[in-house]
Specification:
- The protein is mainly alpha-helical and about 425 residues long.
- It has helices at about 5-55, 60-70, 75-100, 100-110, 115-125, 125-140, 145-195, 210-245, 250-280, 285-315, 315-320, 335-355, 360-385, 390-415.
- Helix 2 (about 60-70) crosses helix 8, helix 10 (about 285-315) runs antiparallel to helix 12 (about 335-355) and helix 12 runs parallel beside helix 14.
- The protein is globular, with a radius of gyration of 21 Å.
- Pfam families: Polysacc_synt.
Length: about 425
């Protein structure tokens, strides 16, 4: 399967996930207004963080090594047994922590200790969520993008139905509860779909720790945690700086444009993750690697550039549709953000070489360095250009990240892709 077919299937799954998220946000806004949407955002942030930690942050590692070992049954068995054990151990640890601190977490994140029971449900659900991540990573590793898209579509539909029912009965609490239980519904769809695949074997559900495989997965855990934890922390610092310098209303304009950017780029980043991570991991010939990177650039960069131009041309309508007329000043912020988006995808295509070839130390150092440079650039650029400087900082930082990845690819392949 080529990138176009993989991209089409991943787009279907991504559209289903985005549609489900939009329905949930609209539902919460209708039930509880802006305050409810704020609580939903906080709860989703906690869920995202726990999902990465509960699975041990090894999903990318499972994808890489399944793609690499799928023709080696002995090593594949050792890998999956260790991965499942690693994920279950991590999820149990996170569940115990969430249960222990349920009340303070509810008071801090949701502003009401009465939501502690919701945190407890989330804690217990960590085992199921870790298993969902494991199943999806294995399917992704075998590059079974159609089955993956089917699971995403069916899981999203069931999640929306559950949210509508629980919100009707329990209002905001029910909608938040549906966010948790909806993840378990993905398991109801994912497990049967996996069992019916031609590559499923009962041994893939066996738990056994293998020292070599556990060390390899731990390296990916470090990479995943650095990429999962640093961006939210840096964005919190950026929001605080922008709020202090320009006020929270201006922060809202910045956040609106960033949300639009995240939404349409999700189609491209998902395609890269689903197709190129296993593809690069399973490719050992360096000339073939160069050809894959070249093919990705030829397909994805024109597509993201056209998408960015379309968003810019329709920015007034997009802002009105997704937000309201009160967000009209955000229209002046799109240009540098969209330029940065194109550079970001170019850098991401190349950066997956570090993930695919397990360059752990280099990847983690790069994540830390460019998180710090982004924050520093925000301070410098906003002092010079005002609020648009935050978008300029985004574009300049990814330009530096692109240059860094060009050097990494050049050193690893001995040349740059044409």
């Amino acid at each position: 399967m080529n990138i176009l077919r993989a991209g089409a299937w991943s787009a279907i799954g991504t559209a289903a996930r985005l549609g489900a998220a939009l329905v949930l946000v609209k539902l919460v806004a209708w039930l509880a207004g802006p305050a409810g949407v704020g609580r939903l955002g906080q709860f989703m942030s906690l869920m995202s963080l726990l999902a990465v930690l509960a699975g041990g942050g090894i999903s990318a590692g499972i994808v890489k090594y399944v793609a690499e070992y799928r023709d080696d049954p002995e090593r594949l068995s050792r890998l999956l047994a260790s991965a499942l054990g690693y994920a279950m151990a991590a999820s149990c640890s996170m569940a115990c922590g969430a249960l222990l601190f349920a009340t303070p977490l509810a008071a801090w994140l949701l502003g009401d200790p009465a939501y502690a029971s919701l945190i407890r449900v989330l804690a217990v659900a960590q085992l199921g969520i870790a298993l969902v991540n494991y199943v999806l990573a294995v399917i992704n590793g075998f590059m079974d993008v159609r089955r993956l898209a089917l699971i995403q579509v069916m899981g999203s539909v069931l999640s929306v139905c559950l949210a509508l029912c629980l919100a009707r009965w329990f209002a905001l609490y029910g909608a938040l509860l549906a966010v948790v239980l909806g993840q378990l519904f993905w398991l109801l769809v994912g497990l049967p779909a996996w069992w019916r695949s031609p590559y499923f074997q009962r041994g893939m559900l066996r738990v056994r720790f293998d020292a070599e495989m556990t060390r390899r997965l731990a390296a990916f855990s470090l990479m995943s945690l650095s990429s999962a934890l640093l961006p939210p922390l840096v964005n919190i610092a950026v929001r605080d700086h922008l709020a202090g310098a320009f006020g929270w209303e201006q922060v809202g304009y910045w956040q609106a444009v960033a949300r639009v950017s995240d939404a349409y780029l999700l189609f491209f980043t998902t395609a890269i993750n689903i197709y190129y991570l296993p593809k690069l991991a399973s490719t050992r010939d360096r000339a073939a690697l160069a050809a894959e990177l070249q093919g990705a650039a030829r397909v994805l960069l024109p597509a993201v550039a056209v998408s960015a131009l379309a968003i810019y041309a329709a920015r007034g309508w997009v802002t009105w549709l997704l937000f309201s007329t009160d967000f009209a000043p955000a229209n002046d912020l799109y240009a540098p953000q969209l330029v940065g988006d194109v550079v970001k995808i170019a850098a991401f295509i190349l950066s997956y070489l570090m993930l695919a070839k397990a360059m752990t130390r280099l990847f983690v150092v790069a994540e830390c360095v460019f998180a710090a440079t982004y924050l520093g650039l925000v301070y410098l650029c906003t002092a010079r250009f005002g609020l648009p400087g935050a978008m300029v900082a985004f574009a300049v930082n990814y330009l530096g990240y692109l240059a860094f990845n060009l050097v990494v690819v050049r050193r690893y392949l001995g040349r740059l892709p044409a």
